[in-house]
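Sharing a chain and its predicted structure for anyone who wants a worked example. Both blocks are below, sequence first, tokens second.
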Amino acid sequence: MLTVDFTRFPLAPGDRVLDLGCGAGRHAFECYRRGAQVVALDQNGEEIREVAKWFAAMKEAGEAPAGATATAMEGDALALPFPDDSFDVVIISEVMEHIPDDKGVLAEMVRVLRPGGRIAVTVPRYGPEKVCWALSDAYHEVEGGHIRIYRADELLEKMREAGLRPYGTHHAHALHSPYWWLKCAFGVDKDGDEAPLPVRAYHKLLVWDIMKKPLATRVAERALNPIVGKSFVAYATKPHAPREDQA
């Protein structure tokens, strides 16, 4: 399930891509399939080891075209182990709401992004997220949990302050908002067979939708995304520095 829309965020074969806070690697895998030179970075060593295994399996299965590369590594988003201007593309999906120094993370992303490069930032959307917080303290008051809720204009302003030039936004995953509201209402710590029937039933619906991609739910989600989309997605570029004769 991708949050970044690659029809709005074009990726060319050979692009150097950083998936920052990659988690289970969903965006990194898609970039690898598209022929990019991918670095998937996360502070969670266990997840990084799993991502590395999937990269190896994809290579063996021939899922990535010739020239594509993929590396999974542990790292700190506030001290990225890369030189300036290292990447053509940076993706940070559902990460910034966890990090106290979000301005520091933005500064590091801008530093390693080349002039003219593109960045995609996704965070939980303000309205659906407020409902989750209201329904459950356990949803956000946990170690490593969500520490802030972004308004769209706030996130875009922080991106501009970091030196980025936003060029597009949208919302995603409307069908997932009710699932999280149910989880928060019945208990976010109840998973699998321990989850109440409404949560299990809705989860089955989401799995079916992800696997089958039926037209009816695709149309419904596109219609509902502007209203209750779970994620807010922003795209931006890093401007080229003006020449001295233009300064």
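Comments welcome. Strands lie at 16-20, 37-42, 69-74, 87-93, 113-124, 165-172, 231-237.
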